[in-house]
Structures are given as structure tokens and as C-alpha cells.
Amino acid sequence: MFTKDITTNEITFTNEYQELLVSRLENDADYDIKAYETYYHILTTSWTIFDIKDWLETLDNYDYAVSIFLVSKDSTGIFTILPRIVISKEFMVNNQNNANVISTYLSNTLKTVFERFGWEDNHYILIQYTKLDIL
């Protein structure tokens, strides 16, 4: 499955993606969409738009459901898995997406989180993305 025009001019959240699929399928589809495999990608505190672009280029020709978490480092500087803060609503991507749109969304979201929780220098960003496939 590969959907054109998602997260190209603005972030396509899951509910918008579902509406897009329903409108394109027009009740003619006899298959279901399932979450297939989940992957993780880490961004450091010094990430740039090029890191987002590089990550998108690693994706196969599928659509992916993405959630982004802010994860703290422990006192020794080692990355931990908990606690983590969900910093994004689930949204959709594929390898044709606009890295600038995702980068801007992530920057704005992080700015809000940092104002509320801190962690500017003591975190990493965990991108969790799940491949969607057709049954």
C-alpha cells in the first residue's frame, strides 16, 4: 500500500488518512488494512531536517503510522526507554513525504514540550513507525 499526497503540504493525522482511504475506496474494497511491523528511529538533540530526510529515504513503498516520543537520558547520560512523553498525535508517512513538513511539525511540538517539561539537553527523540499492509 502506498498513498500519494499524505503529509506533503501538512501533516496527515490518522483520522484524516482513514477518511482519505474511505473516499478513494468508495466501498469497492474487500480487504482490510493491518499494522504489520513496528520499527524505531532515534534522533539526537542536534537533529536537523536532513536527519528527517535520511529517515524517510530508508522507508519502503508502504504507508506508516508514526508516533513520536521524547525520552530522557539517565544521570550517566545513557538513553533509557522510560519515562517517555508522547509528543505527537499519530500521523501517516511514506517515503515520498516532505521532510520540511515533518521537521517543522516536530520543531513546533518540541518547543511546546520544552516550555512545559524542560529536557532540552537531556533527551532523545524516539520515532516509532508501524508499516501498514493490506490483508
Describe this structure in words.
By secondary structure, the protein is of the alpha+beta class. It has one domain: Dna Ligase, domain 1. It contains three helices and six strands; from the N terminus they run βαβαβββαβ. Strands 1, 2, 3, 4, 5 and 6 form a six-stranded antiparallel β-sheet that branches. A hairpin with a 5-residue loop joins β3 and β4 (79-86). α2 (49-57) crosses α3. It is elongated and about 55 Å long. The model has no long low-confidence stretch (mean pLDDT 83).
Helices and strands, with pairings:
Elements: E1 12-13, H1 14-25, E2 33-43, H2 49-57, E3 63-73, E4 79-86, E5 91-93, H3 99-117, E6 123-134
Antiparallel strand pairs: 1-5, 2-6, 3-4, 3-5, 3-6
First and last CA, distance:
10 Å
Q: Helical region count?
A: 3
Q: What's the count of strands?
A: 6
Helical amount among residues, as a percent range?
25-40%
Top-tier CATH class: Alpha Beta
Taken from the alpha-carbon principal axes, the silhouette is elongated
In the CATH scheme, what's the topology name? Dna Ligase, domain 1
Keywords:
alpha+beta, six-stranded antiparallel sheet, 3 helices, Dna Ligase, domain 1, 135 residues
Task: Summarize the entry for a quick read.
The chain is an alpha+beta fold. The protein has 3 helices and 6 strands, in the order E-H-E-H-E-E-E-H-E.
